[in-house]
Amino acid sequence: KVYYNASMRTRDVPGLTRRVETTVRGHDGRIDQESSSSRYGYVSFAVPQSRYDAFRAELESLVGSRFLNVSISSQNLLSQKVSIEEQQKQADTALADYKTARQNIVSAHASTVQSLQEKIDADAQQLAILRAQPSTPQLVAQIQTVSDDWTSLKQRLADENVSYASQLRNADANIKYAQDLQKALQTQDQTLLNNVATVSGTVSIQWVRFWDIALIYLPGYWIPPIFAVLSFLSFLRDRRRQIT
After folding, report:
1. What ranges in 51-208 are assigned the alpha helix state H?
2. What φ, ψ does residue 36 adopt, rounded to 5°?
3. Can you tell me whether residue 2 is helix, strand or coil?
4. In angstroms, rounded to a whole number, what is the distance separating the alpha carbons of residues 146 and 143?
5. What is the DSSP code string of 202-219?
6. Which end of the chain has fewer beta carbons closer than 10 Å to its terminal beta carbon, N or C?
7. What are phi and psi of 18, to 5 degrees?
């Protein structure tokens, strides 16, 4: 990830600020923040990594090299990419485990229901046979035993259905959590890739005085002699005027 920062000095701050914005947009960039006054301008932007070199060349040609200061930094985001990929693998594994656990719950429930239902049907059939026979004390006791077993089996089936519904809700909640985590990690990964694919930067623009321009083009020790020469020439001109 590359970060580009430049400071420029100019006599026309608003005009240069507009040219910076035009340059950013001309290279498919995005303006994130902009401000401009007569003395100070600022532009925060992002441009595609593929357009960075051309953008930089055009931007830095807007002012002379003496009026430009550039600072470039970069950040290695590989560790973040690796971390996201590891989390994605863990999320994939967790989702597969949750789906397997849900299938096991469904299979176990189906097997239990089938077994209980077979026993319930058998008791119902036996009760029908016993009740069709002539009543005796022993038969009544046998019918009661089978009836109690039939009632118990029906309660076990009802409890199994309640337990199954609860386990299924938990299993579905786990699956949804893993799926949501996958989506979040995919979004995070894409955001990281988009971030790397752009160069973020700022350009600050300051108004410069004529005196500062003179100092930029002329070494400091030349300034006093130049002013002395100008003063002397002005003195000679005034003297000639007085003579004439």
Report:
1. 52-60, 78-131, 137-196
2. -155, 140
3. strand
4. 5
5. EEEEEE--HHHHHHHHS-
6. C
7. -65, -40
61 has pLDDT over 60: yes
First to last CA, the chain: 72
For residues 28 and 213, the answer to whether their CB atoms sit within 8 Å is no
Contacts of 44 (CB under 8 A, 6+ apart): 31, 32, 33, 34, 201, 202
The answer to whether 29 and 190 have CB atoms below 8 angstroms apart is no
pLDDT one-digit tens code per residue, 16-49? 999 999 999 999 999 999 999 999 999 999 999 9
Would you say the C-alpha torsion 15, 20, 26, 30 has a positive or negative sign? negative
Count of CB atoms situated within 10 Å of the CB of 76? 8
Q: Could you tell me how far CA 91 lies from the centroid of its own chain?
A: 17
pTM score, whole prediction:
0.66
Residues in contact with 214: Cβ distance below 8 Å, sequence separation at least 6, in sequence order: 223
Angstrom CA distances, 23 to 32, 45, 55, stand at 14, 11, 7
Nearest Cα residue to 205 out of 80, 84, 63:
63
**H or E element that contains 14:** helix 13-26
